[in-house]
Write a structure and sequence with these properties.
This protein has about 950 residues and is mainly beta. About 0% of the residues lie in helices and about 50% in strands. It starts with a helix and ends with a helix.
């Protein structure tokens, strides 16, 4: 049925305009969230003020052809700061329940590839007011015995807020004024965090012992209520003091229970005790019972510095810390150091020898080392010297020096590490010292292992073996190239058998790897070192990976697949395919750039692939070759595209350009598809009648008899002699068309249902109602609303808001005037703007009257509203006249916004609205006569 009332005119015509309508992006930021205020800071930036916890909504309204893409980014401070937020590719930026850390400068970048991208910014200022903190202090020099029986006391009130808070001090319920009390001083201290105001009580008097309230206010900005805090100052007030039930450091075994008690020994009011763990939260197993912290079955993860803090806001908080150490022991290693004075690498009789033993432990200084020789304890002697902590080795290393080695010193030596009295298991290492059991290591890479090749994504093993020497140390692997890390992310990787296993190898892992003998678990001599080269093979890297190639039919086509890189570089095969079928052609020269040339016909359109192979695999260049035309490009900046028609219908002037129209066969027309709710309303071909599209030149087409106020999806596809392009779609929406203010008085009395082109705002809560005395609801509220229209006629109509149920306080109704186009009108000499006079009558009777606002909505890239007139509360039983001048910078609308008051007796009405060119004139009888004549008509 809808097809019957959609008429598609065949009037399609190009609009020329210089070099076409392609234009760089232009952008403007507007808001539609819960802003408290938006004001201009300077020419290039606006400030958006919002309350913490509200919803931030910023829109980047763009112009330009083709349609620009939008990206949002944010910085915290100046424009030179790095972007802190990930880019958001959307025209609307929405942040629910915004936090103060989200404040800063937001950037909207619009780019369509034409000229320079447009960048606009807006600074978001998040407003907040925390509950203040009140602390009490006394100068140290005044403290002698009891805390508050001396001279001077300071009450310090600190708060975090934006904007800066205003402070008020009260003693009891009485406001403290410095000028009226010589015993107080109120000031702002230097070098404090947050905003601070100090109340100084000089020469403390008996009446100064009282309740003190610090009230902070940001003057109801963003409807943020005042906050306050009260402190009771008495002669018993004193700061907190605590003591711990344990030492500053507590060392325990894994699995033990730990109880830490923080006893409060002084303080009034009674202090609050808090436990915390430095740099992280308390363990999940931790139990806090008042001043006591209980840790059950501690593990290594529970170790750390625990902090007990007692706070009562008097003086400084009392703090005590406990360092909890959980014993651990692992990785016991040894070293055999020949006589370093003789530069020796072997064990020789008559020379010194050092055996060293080290374990990784916590606490390291509590480890006990015991040495044994053939199972018997070793004690200091002239030939055996024990070093509890060897200064020549890593901290925590114990050594046994054998002086002037004799045959009797050839034996098995054992090093045992333990924690005395601990349940942590001891660790033991044995070292057999003999002329046959100790020899320097010999490092070797197996034949063919110097260079190892592997395909990308595969697994590989690099081998570097200790083929001789006793004992055989582990092998440490690292990258030979400076500053490169191992695939594990560490500088070195230890392998006990010298085999480095790498999985899922990538090309960035290619290079030289160094293998070295470790300086432990063997001879402590010059480290042996070799290198292994890892060669990662990968398929050819090609360009382009994909290309959309458009040509005219019968045109010669050349497809070229460039080889950027390949390992191994030698190619093994080059083949061309069309739609998956192999193309037979002469054998390709593997040293030349792969090319395919052919004449494009309707039968050989399709997907072409060039598959290039080496020993590591195959890569593909893909070309989508066709004579299919490029997409149409909708034009979104058509001025005043809507025209009102009879029968509550409208027409829409649809405009677009054709992308690269000469790249393919001549475009002879377009398929157009109009849809509503995914149902086809119209599907028809547009005939260009021999007019070929030109680059950057608009094509226009009028769609008629669309229903007000419905929106539609329009799909468009170009047509050539041999093919049809892809469909592109957009939404067209009804909007009020431009009208032109008249140079003489023209009054709208809302006497017909069209209400002079006024319309209801669909984004508000409820609507304005048209009525007169005869159409009133007989059950209406008797003490509000007009009895007649402005002229006194019971037949005359007016517009009003009904504030009875279900309306609630704060509900808004907006009535929009027609859109007035002022671009063709010039202002007075020396002025760039034309003045207009807005005149109307209003009726605001009732004890619950809310607010009537009149807003000026100016359209540029986006619509911007500003309040130009406002009236609130009961204004009497008569109709009253209002008039004022405006000077809009562009096309504009007048918006009447009625806001419901606290209850139902709050109806607001308007009548006899006029918008005329020129400044308003003073009241005169002639103007009244004009109003009366129009009403009678």
């Amino acid at each position: 049925m809808e097809l019957l009332w959609i008429l598609l005119f065949s009037s399609v015509y190009p609009l020329t305009g210089g070099q076409g309508v392609y234009a760089p992006a232009n952008a403007q930021i507007v808001h539609s969230g819960e802003a408290c205020n938006v004001k201009d800071d300077n020419i290039s930036e606006r400030i958006y003020t919002i309350k913490e916890g509200d919803t931030l909504v910023l829109q980047c309204i763009v112009k330009g052809h083709p349609r620009p893409q939008v990206r949002w980014t944010k910085t915290a401070g100046s424009a030179s700061d790095k972007f802190q937020e990930k880019p958001i590719f959307n025209e609307t930026l929405r942040i629910e329940s915004i936090k103060r850390i989200k404040g800063g400068r937001y950037y909207c970048k619009a780019d369509n590839g034409v000229g320079v991208a447009a960048i606009k910014s807006i600074r978001v200022d998040v407003q907040y007011l925390d509950v203040p903190v009140l602390t009490v202090h006394q100068t140290i020099s005044d403290v002698r015995g009891s805390y508050y029986q001396e001279k001077t006391v300071f009450l310090r009130c600190t708060v975090n807020s934006n904007p800066p808070a205003r402070f008020t001090w009260k003693r009891g319920n009485m406001l403290i004024e410095q000028s009226k009390d010589n015993g107080v001083d109120i000031y702002e201290p230097l070098y404090t965090q947050g905003e601070t105001k100090v109340l100084k009580l000089k020469n403390l008097r008996p009446r100064d012992f009282a309740n003190y309230t610090c009230q902070v206010s940001v003057r109801n900005v963003c409807n943020i209520e005042d906050k306050s805090i009260t402190f009771s100052l008495t002669n018993a007030t004193s700061p907190p003091m605590i003591r711990l039930s344990v030492n500053d450091t507590v060392v325990v075994d894994p699995g033990q229970d730990v109880l830490l008690n923080c006893e409060v020994t002084a303080g009034f009011p009674p202090p609050t005790v808090l436990w915390s763990l430095y740099s992280r939260s308390l363990p999940l197993s931790a139990q806090v019972r008042g001043p006591t912290l209980i840790l059950r079955a501690v593990t290594l993860d529970d170790a750390g510095v625990y902090n007990c803090t007692a706070v009562n806001n008097v003086g400084n908080p009392a703090r005590k810390i406990v360092n909890l150490v959980v014993r651990t022991m692992s990785n016991l290693t040894f070293q055999i150091t020949p006589d370093s004075n003789k530069d020796s690498e072997t064990i020789q009789m008559g020379r010194d020898l050092k055996l060293s033993c080290h374990v990784d432990a916590t606490p390291q200084d509590k480890v006990n080392y015991t040495w044994y020789k053939n199972g018997a304890p070793v004690f200091n002697s002239e030939s055996l010297i024990l070093l509890r902590s060897d200064p020549d080795m890593a901290p925590g290393t114990s050594s046994l020096e054998i002086v002037d080695m004799k045959f009797r010193d050839l034996a098995t030596y054992s090093c045992v590490a333990n924690f005395p009295g601990s349940r942590v298991l001891e660790l033991r290492v044995d070292v057999n010292v003999s002329q046959n059991s100790v020899s320097p290591p010999v490092l070797s890479v197996p034949p063919g292992g110097q260079v190892v090749s592997v395909r990308e994504g595969g697994n590989v093993e690099l081998v570097c073996l200790v083929v001789d020497g006793k004992p055989r140390p582990p092998i440490l692997w690292s990258r030979a190239e400076k500053d490169l890390l191992m695939p594990s992310g560490t500088a070195t990787t230890e392998t006990p058998d010298g085999r480095l296993r790498l999985k899922n190898v990538s090309r960035d892992m290619m290079g030289a790897y160094r293998c070295q003998t470790a300086p432990y678990n063997g001879l402590n001599i010059k480290r042996r070192e070799l290198q292994v080269q890892l060669n990662v093979q990968f398929p050819p890297i090609l360009d382009p990976v994909f290309q959309d190639a458009r040509w005219r039919n019968s045109q010669m086509v050349t497809l070229r697949c460039n080889i950027l890189r390949s390992n191994p570089p030698r190619l093994t095969d080059i083949r061309w395919f069309r739609n998956g079928d192999f193309i037979r052609m002469p054998t390709a020269d593997l040293k030349e750039i792969p090319e395919l040339k052919f004449k494009l016909e309707p039968t050989n359109n399709g997907s072409y692939e060039c598959r290039v192979s080496n020993n590591a695999g195959t890569s593909t260049c893909t070309f989508n070759v066709s004579a299919q035309p490029y997409n149409a490009e909708f034009y979104f900046d058509t001025p005043n595209p809507v025209r009102i028609q009879k029968g509550n219908n409208y027409s829409y002037n649809l405009q677009w350009t054709q992308k690269d129209p000469e790249a393919t066969d001549r475009i002879i027309g377009y398929w157009i598809n109009v849809r509503k709710n995914k149902q086809n309303v119209l599907w028809k071909q547009i005939d260009l009648k021999g007019k070929e599209p030109e680059q950057g030149v608009l094509i226009s087409h009028t769609i008629s008899d669309l229903k007000i106020p419905l929106s539609y999806e329009v799909r468009l596809s170009p047509i050539t002699t041999y093919s049809t392009g892809d469909f592109v779609s957009r939404i067209i929406q009804y909007s009020e068309p431009y009208t032109y203010p008249r140079p003489s008085d023209h009054v709208c009395g809302f006497e017909n249902e069209r209400i002079c082109g006024f319309s209801q705002d669909r984004s508000d809560i409820f609507d304005w109602t048209r009525q007169n005395h005869l159409t009133r609801n007989p059950k209406r509220s008797a003490n509000t609303g007009p009895e007649t229209d402005r002229s006194g006629s019971k037949e005359g109509y007016y517009m009003y808001i009904e504030t009875s149920f279900p309306r609630v306080q704060g509900d808004k109704a907006r009535l929009l005037s027609p859109l007035f186009n002022v671009s063709s009108v010039r202002g007075p000499k020396g002025s760039g703007r034309v003045p207009y006079c807005v005149s109307f009558y209003y009726h605001m009777k009732g004890k619950h009257i809310g607010t009537l606002n009149v807003l000026l909505r100016v359209r540029s890239i986006a619509s911007v509203d500003s309040v130009v007139w406002m009236k609130s509360g009961h204004q009497g039983p008569e109709w009253r006249k209002a008039f004022f001048d405006i000077s809009p910078s562009g096309p504009f609308q007048i918006v009447f916004e009625g806001i419901r008051g606290p209850s139902f007796e709050g109806d607001i009405a308007i009548d006899d609205v006029s918008i005329t060119i020129g400044k308003c004139k003073q009241e005169n009888t002639a103007a009244s006569a004009v109003f009366q004549r129009y009403k009678r008509k």
